[in-house]
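**Folding the chain**
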Amino acid sequence: MPAWVKRRVLLLNATYEPLTALPMRRAVVLLVCEKAVVVDDDPAGVVLHSAATSVQVPSVIRLRTYVRVPYRARIPMTRAALMHRDRFRCAYCGGRAETIDHVVPRSRGGAHSWENCVACCAHCNHRKADRLLGELGWVLRCDLTPPKGRHWRLFATAKEIDPSWLQYLGEPAA
């Protein structure tokens, strides 16, 4: 399967509020049905052809009409969102993070929550095992706070963020 088939497109509300990252196919359907307009073209993007028309796949689209988004108090904790919160860095050594670690191990009553999980490299995760930080003399390099802001819902679902999306997402919280 070609890489462009898996491409995702940022969907903005009519007010330019980021909503989600759509599969390329769904984004093209919204454009063809005139429910969305192109906000940011991708000059190197793929052009899809049909018998009657051709559509260049954009990187960002905006809905023509406003869609009310129900308020959710807490951002869901996913692997992708946690990695973005910790900026893909190990909370213990600062190296490249590959796994998720529970600061207070689950075997010792630790919860699977924003306040107890960190991004971690495989080496530190293996060394820590089911011990507490105090037992090892380690300290955390990051805060254990849930992220805030509308754009974090997008980070919870997208593994990779297209650089052209950043101007529409605002500055992610540290």
